[in-house]
Amino acid sequence: MKVQDIKGAILATSVYSNSKQVGVNVSVTLPEVAPETTEVTAAGGTLELPVLTKLQAMESTVTKQGVDRAWLQALTPEPQDLIANIVQQSVAPDGSSTPEHIKAYMRVVPKTLPGIEATFGEASENEITFSVLSYRLTVNGSTYSANSPDIAYDGSRHRVTLTKASDPAPTPNPEPEQNQAI
Prior knowledge:
This protein is mainly beta. The protein is about 5% helix and about 55% strand. It contains 1 helix and 12 strands. The chain has one helix at about 70-75, and strands spanning about 5-15, 20-25, 25-30, 35-40, 45-55, 60-65, 80-90, 95-110, 125-140, 140-145, 160, 165. The strands form 2 sheets. Strands 1, 2, 3, 6, 7, 8, 9, 10 and 12 form a 9-stranded antiparallel β-sheet that branches. The radius of gyration is 21 Å and the shape is globular. It starts with 5 loop residues before the first strand and ends in an 18-residue tail after the last strand.
């Protein structure tokens, strides 16, 4: 039986909006992907089944201390690309520790503009909530995606394609050129 690694602390985070850095070591909440359900009446009862082609609304939040120019860019009330980079500690059964890279690609629209609370002598903590239109999560080469860009967003419900790509295949050795010595 294979023993799984223990996932430890988050070592670092960074968030980019339209390729410009919004924050470093910020708190990020990635969207929950939850399909809508339908009830099917069967002999003697009702069964609730997920409809994998329709998702409930997804949202994500980014919380940062302070306000700056980059933070204000993320408040632009139009669709934007948001990328969250997360590094998490992974501890193997032999006790060795390695960083594990998590990357979330999202197409978002700001859902709320944060009210900024300013208290003398304290840092302000500000949170932006985003409506997520599409979402792709990559963890060490394995990718999960919801609401692929090629699927139309109809304004009231999310349509989804849930895919899981296996770990990346090893790259084959390139063929030697004809003039190259073997």
